C-alpha cells in the first residue's frame, strides 16, 4: 500500500473498528495512528489531506467527532490548517444557507459544533451562528413582517440548532 493510499484509507476508515461501531480497536489508538500518518505525509500531500478531510466531514457526518479531533490535533502543530478548515466550512455553510441545501446546513452546523469541542472554533462564534439562525427563524415566522409560508424554514433552523447541541452541549454549558 502506498503512503498516499495509506493516509487516505486511514482517514476514510477512522473509527470503523472502534467499540461504538461494533469493533474492538480503541478509537483513541485509531485517531493517533491517523494523526501520525497525516503529519508524516503533510509536506507531500497537504492540499489533498485538507480536501479529503473536508469531504469526509461532510459525506461521513457520523464520524464528525473523529474528524474534529483530528483537526484539533493538527491545530496544535499547524494553526493555519485549522483556520483554513474553519474558514472553508463556514463558507460552505453560508453557501448551503443561500442555496437552501438543508442536509448540508445540518451536517456543517454539526461539524462546526464538533470543531468547537476540539478547541478550533470559539464557543461564542458558534453561539453567534445559533443566534443568527434563531433571529432568521423569528423574522421568518413573524406574521407582520415575515412570510408565514416560510414556517417550515424557521422550524428547520431551530431543528438544526437543537440537533447540533448534543455534539457540544457540555462545552457550551461552560461558556454561559
TrEMBL record:
<dbReference type="GO" id="GO:0005634">
    <property type="term" value="C:nucleus"/>
</dbReference>
<dbReference type="GO" id="GO:0006406">
    <property type="term" value="P:mRNA export from nucleus"/>
</dbReference>
<dbReference type="GO" id="GO:0003729">
    <property type="term" value="F:mRNA binding"/>
</dbReference>
<dbReference type="Pfam" id="PF02854">
    <property type="entry name" value="MIF4G"/>
</dbReference>
<dbReference type="GO" id="GO:0000184">
    <property type="term" value="P:nuclear-transcribed mRNA catabolic process, nonsense-mediated decay"/>
</dbReference>
<protein>
    <recommendedName>
        <fullName>MIF4G domain-containing protein</fullName>
    </recommendedName>
</protein>
<dbReference type="GO" id="GO:0005846">
    <property type="term" value="C:nuclear cap binding complex"/>
</dbReference>
<dbReference type="InterPro" id="IPR016024">
    <property type="entry name" value="ARM-type_fold"/>
</dbReference>
<feature type="domain" description="MIF4G">
    <location>
        <begin position="26"/>
        <end position="172"/>
    </location>
</feature>
<dbReference type="GO" id="GO:0000339">
    <property type="term" value="F:RNA cap binding"/>
</dbReference>
<dbReference type="InterPro" id="IPR003890">
    <property type="entry name" value="MIF4G-like_typ-3"/>
</dbReference>
<dbReference type="InterPro" id="IPR027159">
    <property type="entry name" value="CBP80"/>
</dbReference>
Amino acid at each position: 500500500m502506498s503512503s498516499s493510499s495509506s493516509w487516505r484509507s486511514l482517514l476514510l476508515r477512522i473509527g470503523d473498528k472502534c467499540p461504538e461501531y461494533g469493533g474492538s480497536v480503541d478509537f483513541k489508538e485509531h485517531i493517533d495512528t491517523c494523526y501520525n500518518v497525516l503529519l508524516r505525509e503533510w509536506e507531500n500531500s497537504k492540499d489533498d489531506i485538507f480536501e479529503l478531510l473536508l469531504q469526509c466531514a461532510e459525506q461521513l457526518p457520523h464520524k464528525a467527532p473523529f474528524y474534529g479531533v483530528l483537526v484539533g490535533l493538527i491545530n496544535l502543530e499547524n494553526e493555519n490548517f485549522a483556520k483554513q478548515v474553519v474558514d472553508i466550512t463556514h463558507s460552505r455553510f453560508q453557501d448551503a444557507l443561500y442555496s437552501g441545501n438543508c442536509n448540508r446546513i445540518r451536517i456543517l452546523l454539526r461539524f462546526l459544533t464538533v470543531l468547537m469541542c476540539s478547541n478550533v472554533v470559539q464557543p461564542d462564534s458558534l453561539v453567534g451562528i445559533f443566534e443568527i439562525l434563531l433571529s432568521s427563524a423569528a423574522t421568518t415566522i413573524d406574521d407582520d413582517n415575515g412570510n408565514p409560508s416560510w414556517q417550515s424554514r424557521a422550524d428547520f433552523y431551530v431543528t438544526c440548532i437543537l440537533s447540533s447541541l448534543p455534539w457540544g452541549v457540555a462545552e457550551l454549558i461552560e461558556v454561559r
